[in-house]
Amino acid sequence: AVSRVRVASSRCFCSLWQHPSRISSRRMLRHIVCLKFKASLDKVQTSAALSAALKTLPAKIPEIKGYLFGADAGLDPEKNHDFVIVADFADLAAYKKYSTHPEHMEVVVQVIKPVIADGGRVAVQCYFPSSL
């Protein structure tokens, strides 16, 4: 079976920009989360533990259509967050199922929340054409 999980490389990725009014009705939802770890934690070990937990989710949550995650490349550690998660969903309903799914919530509560600094989570959800 082909895995839907890919660990993000140290290179940046980008997507086609379109004005929201030009996006077709066939669009997907992308959920992007950036995490800043507590200063007392080892970033390599924390990233490895987080990756181990996250890589299990696509097999347990069928709403996930694409899943990328990985540690920051370290180019500007004073300003950048330490870890990124990018998840793609067919639509808003699929994202909502994922966001409240027990397996996802277990990772959030047991793995993510204990390692993030105060104010160390930023997230955005955006639509993009499903043909990308």
TrEMBL record:
SMART domains: Dabb (SM00886). Residues 29-124 form the Stress-response A/B barrel domain. It comes from the Eukaryota. Coiled coil: none annotated. SUPFAM superfamilies: Dimeric alpha+beta barrel. InterPro entries: Dabb (IPR013097), Dimeric_a/b-barrel (IPR011008). This is Stress-response A/B barrel domain-containing protein.
